[in-house]
TrEMBL record:
SUPFAM superfamilies: FAD/NAD(P)-binding domain
InterPro entries per record: FAD-bd (IPR002938), FAD/NAD-bd_sf (IPR036188)
The organism of origin for this protein: Arthrobacter ginsengisoli
Highest taxon above the source species: Bacteria
Protein name: 2-polyprenyl-6-methoxyphenol hydroxylase-like FAD-dependent oxidoreductase
Residue ranges annotated for the FAD-binding domain, each copy included: 15-82
Gene3D superfamilies, per database record: FAD/NAD(P)-binding domain
Signal peptide, first to last residue: none
Length: 90
């Protein structure tokens, strides 16, 4: 990725995933206009839950997105990992 030095006001960004959108949001906070190029013509939802650990939520919070995320999710305080025959591993 090209390193941005002072004086740049626009930036191309490749990919509309969380990485590309996160970069665009962070650059936008610094006053940089970002143009995102996404090769897919539509988003395909997988229908799975999304787990976001604390380190991820901290960054999303810095991007000003934490309250919006919390409004559609819930907190939990433990994980369980199961084997193929549902035996609890951890
Ligand atoms: C089934 C499943 C469940 C998951 N569950 C979780 C979870 O619960 N929690 C979690 O944190 N992570 C989860 N992940 C992982 C998470 O989805 C990825 O780590 C994350 O999406 C990676 O984001 P990214 O922006 O780097 O890449 P991507 O999401 O892959 O985005 C890259 C984008 O760039 C586009 N692109 C690529 N090349 C080009 C190009 N040349 N020009 C234009 N566009 C381009 C692609 O089309 C794509 O939309 C899961 C993954 C899967 C598959």
């Amino acid at each position: 990725m090209e390193v941005l030095h002072g004086g740049y006001s626009t930036c191309p960004d490749r990919g509309g995933g969380i990485g590309g959108l996160g970069l665009a949001a962070a650059l936008g906070q610094q006053g940089v206009d970002v143009e995102i190029a996404e090769r897919r013509t539509e988003y395909k939802l997988l229908g799975v839950g999304i787990n976001q650990p604390a380190n991820s939520l901290r960054i999303l919070g810095r991007l000003g997105l934490l309250e919006q995320i919390r409004s559609v999710g819930f907190a939990y305080d433990r994980n369980e990992f199961h084997g193929a025959v549902r035996k609890t591993l951890i």
